[in-house]
Specification:
- Strands 15-12-14-13-17-18-16-19 form an eight-stranded antiparallel sheet. It has a five-stranded antiparallel sheet with strand order 5-6-10-8-9. A four-stranded mixed sheet has the order 1-2-4-3, with helices on one face.
- By secondary structure, the protein is of the alpha+beta class.
- The radius of gyration is 21 Å and the shape is globular.
- Helix content is 27%, strand content 27%.
- The protein has three domains: 64 residues, Uridine Diphospho-n-acetylenolpyruvylglucosamine Reductase, domain 2, CATH 3.30.43; 111 residues, Uridine Diphospho-n-acetylenolpyruvylglucosamine Reductase, domain 3 (2-Layer Sandwich); 199 residues, Alpha-Beta Plaits (2-Layer Sandwich).
- It binds flavin-adenine dinucleotide.
- Flavin-adenine dinucleotide binds next to strand 3, helix 3 and strand 10.
Length: 437
């Protein structure tokens, strides 16, 4: 165990800082238990890539990234057990080397498993990552260890729990046999792709739509499982396409001063990067997950029931196309689909949902980015739920209306953490608790 004293914690986006008294790096479960037991206020952090202020803000911090071993495989059950600080990319590579996959992956591979699970991280056309847990060890506020399996009722509270019920220590994932996806990508007008969502969800194994605000276009990505030997007409487009994020950053440089420049930038970006088609194949990880990002960004994301999505989408589009509008939205708005589950704080609790991302490519000026407010107002009006790791203003009053199990979760949290050890100032507000931070 290593301890640094009295330093400053800085988020990946460099827009959240906190002073801490002790920052630990650990490599064993026993070390983690001892630190939790002896701390008054503690947060665990992974790769610090959340936009929400959830990973720090306590006197004691633990950097979980060195707690990152693969502990075991069970070939008969296709399960893998890992320590929670492992980076997702490393986990997936290990899983693929066994000929397995986790069948729904987010579009980022640098996050830790602990961070991903705590915040309800998801991909598309499948379930939240946390739904693939079959067993985990949770370190409770008193430092004791609780093993939770998928048969325990507690699992539905723990799968998505923001690190406020305890610290996820070791995790066992259920995997499936690896498959090859045949991916096709190309632009479509909004009036073409929007009515086809349900039909496409039935027809394809993978569906994601990158909506390009202020252009009336979406970029539709479909994937179908094929025999790995099947020949396809591979076309990865021009090598120039890999500069999309850099070009966006340049074109959006002054959009915090002149927001309307965004709509011009989006038209240029559409022509340069989204107007062609592509075709390729690979595993879900190889073919659909972004492996490198040149720069930071700030994110919001909202979810809404599949049946409500078309009207919410039309309302958002109408709002941002008004002359009086101040919300100009950077590309793309990522539209994905999550199947229903039973996790109390999951966006997809007992309901199939559509998720819609909203990005600001200028992390430093995200506080003045009107789009985050507009998307929140519209989605909240229809009972939408925000992504726990991303930007939103909603608090306890709103969550008690949109989450059926909100009060149950709060009661359980108080029982497991009676001294509010795991709450930082931001989470204290979210749960409407009174605490001395
Ligand atoms: C470029 C980018 C792309 C993204 N793409 C997606 C996507 O496709 N889908 C999606 O759903 N999300 C996506 N996200 C959000 C991302 O998955 C979350 O922000 C995730 O939490 C980041 O992991 P991290 O390791 O950086 O966690 P951190 O930000 O460091 O921590 C997140 C939370 O997890 C808690 N935590 C960490 N480890 C543990 C543990 N062991 N036990 C208990 N709590 C713990 C922390 O206390 C904190 O509350 C994206 C984010 C970025 C920046």
């Amino acid at each position: 165990m290593k301890q640094n004293k009295n330093g400053v914690w800085l988020s990946w986006n460099e827009n959240i800082t906190y002073n801490y008294k002790s920052l630990y790096t650990i490599s064993t479960e026993e070390e983690l238990q001892e630190i939790v037991k002896n701390s008054e206020k503690i947060r665990i952090f992974g790769n610090k890539q959340s936009s929400a202020d959830i990973a720090s803000g306590a006197a004691t911090l633990v950097d979980i990234k060195s707690y990152n071993k693969i502990l075991s495989y069970n070939d008969a059950e296709k399960t893998i057990t890992v320590q929670s600080g492992i980076i997702l990319g490393d986990l997936i590579e290990a899983v693929e080397a066994k000929g397995w996959c986790i069948p729904c992956l987010p579009d980022i591979n640098t996050i830790t498993i602990g961070g991903a699970l705590a915040t309800g991280t998801h991909g598309t056309s499948g379930k939240l990552l946390s739904e693939y847990i079959t067993k985990c060890n949770l370190i409770l506020a008193d430092g004791s260890l609780k093993e939770i399996t998928e048969k325990d009722d507690l699992i539905n509270a723990v799968r998505v729990s923001l690190g406020v019920l305890g610290v996820l220590s070791t995790i066992t994932f259920k995997c499936e046999s690896i498959y090859t996806l045949h991916v096709k990508e190309g632009p479509e007008n909004d009036n073409e792709w929007l009515p086809k969502i349900k039909e496409r969800l039935k027809k394809h194994d993978f569906l994601r739509i990158l909506w390009i605000p202020h252009t009336d276009k979406g970029y539709v990505i479909t994937g179908d499982k094929i025999n790995p030997e099947t020949e396809i007409n591979e076309d990865l487009g021009s090598s120039f396409l890999k500069h999309r994020r850099k070009a966006s950053k340049i074109l959006y440089k002054y959009t915090h001063i002149f927001p309307w420049l965004t709509s011009i930038a989006n038209k240029i970006l559409y022509q340069g990067f989204f107007s062609g088609t592509k075709e390729h194949k690979g595993s879900l990880y190889q073919a659909t997950v972004t492996k490198s990002r040149g720069s930071t960004l700030e994110l919001a994301e909202w979810t809404i029931g599949l049946d409500d999505f078309p009207k919410v989408f039309e309302e958002l589009k109408t709002e941002i196309n008004k002359w009086s509008n101040k919300s100009f939205i950077h590309i793309p708005m990522d539209i994905r689909f999550v199947y229903s589950d039973n996790s109390w704080l999951s966006y997809a609790y007992k309901k199939e949902v559509v998720t819609m991302g909203c990005v600001s490519r200028n992390a430093a000026t995200a506080d003045t980015y009107e789009a985050f407010k507009t998307i929140e107002n519209i989605f909240l009006k229809y009972g939408g739920k925000p992504h726990w790791a991303k930007r939103f203003m909603a608090k306890d009053a709103e969550f008690s209306k949109i989450y059926d199990k909100w009060e149950d979760f709060k009661t359980l949290r108080r029982k497991l953490d009676p001294t509010n050890k795991f709450l930082n100032p931001y989470l204290t507000e979210i749960f409407n608790e009174k605490t001395n931070n």
